[in-house]
Write a structure and sequence with these properties.
Strand 3 and strand 4 form a beta hairpin. The longest helix is centred in the N-terminal third of the chain and has 14 residues. By secondary structure, the chain is an alpha+beta fold.
């Protein structure tokens, strides 16, 4: 009897633990205290010229990964140099405390929004994936809300500002 009671209490405490999990509530920030990793990805696209023959990637394509606890930051970006084929540039480093502190407001400004039916076409396809102990959630760019029906959306202006900061940190 005592063993059964302890098991029931353990299950109850586990089920009611402090984990917040990926956020999907409109108006809430997706960057919570339990975020483990943030992956921001630009899949390319929009109104850009076709890549030169032999290119390994699409203009604007980039993937930035931040491991929150260690402040480890790595990236893969498509780079161009004149008329030569586009190539992939990779790098990684640990952010300084000051760099991380400066980045946090950009992450906190990523808030879930309701789709307003916008159907953009003139910028790359952006998304951000958050991993928490409770799971993983990918959020789409509200700029393309007319075509994204399978995931929550985040504000396009906040997402654009985050990508600008990440690009700068990867220089």
């Amino acid at each position: 009897m005592r063993h059964t009671m302890l098991f029931a209490v353990s299950v109850f405490l586990f089920a009611c633990g402090p984990t917040k999990g990926p956020v999907t509530t409109v108006g809430a920030s997706i960057f919570t205290s339990d975020v483990i990793t943030v992956v921001a990805e630009n899949h390319g696209g929009g109104f850009v010229p076709p890549p030169p023959a032999g290119s390994a990637c699409a203009l604007g394509a980039a993937k930035y990964t931040l491991t929150v606890g260690s402040k480890f930051f790595d990236w893969t970006r498509c780079v161009s140099s004149g008329m030569n084929p586009y190539t992939i540039a990779k790098g990684s480093r640990t952010l300084t405390d000051a760099e991380y502190k400066n980045l946090v407001p950009y992450l906190e400004n990523l808030t879930v929004v309701a789709g307003d039916g916008l159907c953009g076409a003139d910028k790359g396809t952006l998304d951000v994936t958050i991993t928490t102990p409770s799971g993983q959630q990918t959020y789409g760019d509200s700029f393309y809300s007319c075509s994204i029906k399978d995931k929550p959306l985040v504000r396009t202006d906040a997402l654009d500002r985050l990508f600008s900061q990440l690009y700068t940190l990867a220089m």
